[in-house]
# Entry
Amino acid sequence: MENLHESVFSWITPRLRQLPWRDTRDPWLVLVSEVMLQQTGVHRVLPKWEAFVAEFPRADECARAPLGDVLRLWQGLGYPRRARNLHEAAKAIVSEHGGVVPSSLEGLLGLPGVGPYTARAVLAFAFEADAAVVDTNIARVLARHHGRTLKAREAQTLADAWVPSGEAWLWNQALMDLGATVCRPRPMCEVCPVAFTCAWRGGGAGDGDGDGDDPSVGSAGVSVSQPRFEGSDRQARGRLMKALSELPVSVAAVSVVMDRPEDVSSRLVDDLLREGLIVRDGDELRLP
# Structure
């Protein structure tokens, strides 16, 4: 295990990606980054995170703001439920924790929209606790290194066992970057710092061609191909949310804005209303 740690740390030292949320240990700012990074690439998150934390540098400021203001800042990131959940989490931080982000796994898991990964990420990256995170990149590294498809609980157990005491912040960041840049869906095993102990590579399957023997395929936490965006309900919802971030939209114009038949647009509007992401005011729709 010591050789594994030394190899990863030696590899990451000159390569650690410089990201603004890595320069802070403020748990609120770390939480914002982790929620934004769910299902969204770093390049899209960077400007949004900077704008968001400039507007809401503390949880209480986010909690006091109307949801509509949070959604406007979120525009362009997709999956607006995350913005609603973050707003609800901010309100819970204020009402249940005196405005201070909780520093325990149980307390973090009690926040709206915060699951096992996000809770452990805040523990490791804000509080520098010995917590192991398992995102899609780390899950891929774990499955390949151990040479088998993993269930969620097993992946977490293996990740926990890997964390070097007192080094969780750098260790988790290093594994994330390893999965993002080397142990990718089409891996570059020839430059991997842990190839010498990798069961997949060592077994002769990990030759960098991403063949069907890849144990990460179907492993818990490893992302799969997203459904087609063009023509999807997500695209139509996004069109309406973008329009509403600028001006209210009349109910009569929704089908045109969404570029969908009236029965489809009506169904999607009902969903958005039920989720609390939009409100109806007479014959108009607007953000909350």
About this structure: The chain has three domains: 26-125, 132-225, 233-286.
